[in-house]
Amino acid sequence: MGYLQECVGIESRYRRNRGAWASHLEESRQLMLEAAGQCAERDTVLIFGAGLLHDIPLTDLLGMFRRVILADILFMAPARRAAEREQRLELVTLDVTASLTSLAEGKTELTQPTAYLDDPSISLVISASILSQLFVVPNAYLEKHFGQGDAESEVLGQALVRAHLAYLGAFECPVALIADETHIIRDRSGAETATASALHDVPLPLGGRSWDWDICPLGEIDRDHAVMHRVRGYQDFPKT
Length: 240
Fold this sequence. Notes:
The chain is built from six helices and eight strands.
């Protein structure tokens, strides 16, 4: 469907912009460690979206929990090497949407994910910067192969975001969420020229804390514009 290409693209952007990304990655790691530090039980931490590892304080989490599970659609070489070195680190290839098989066939009715909800060993769940990515590849795929229009992509994007939030809310253990909330375009002077929801206008709960991620500095897209993401993080995601 294009996940490998997307993953390689993210890795390439990281290598070009690691200096600009550094503060965002450190904010993410710190929030995860704060969430981990508040856990009364420290058996297993389950992390969604950890295939590239850049934002994951893996060594610290291995020191705090008996087991670390990284769950993602695919894993690049650094994660695989880390799992080979550490028996308490488990890589699980997981479709966190539980719907990719049907989406690949052009069917847009979603299945609500249930993986690990019945696992009593899970002490902490972390959703690591994947909420705004869940619909990117499926929508591009459906637009290319099934002629899906903008309105349908909007509806599917909203449904995937809401389904993931509901999935996180179904865990009995604490949950930490890090998610891009807003796309912001700036000109060469730093002035904001456009903003848009990163989540198809699905609102996040009040609370948490926010920071800015300089994801595409000047020159990454073109010489006159930069893209920043406003990120919201919850060390204890509010469940409804």
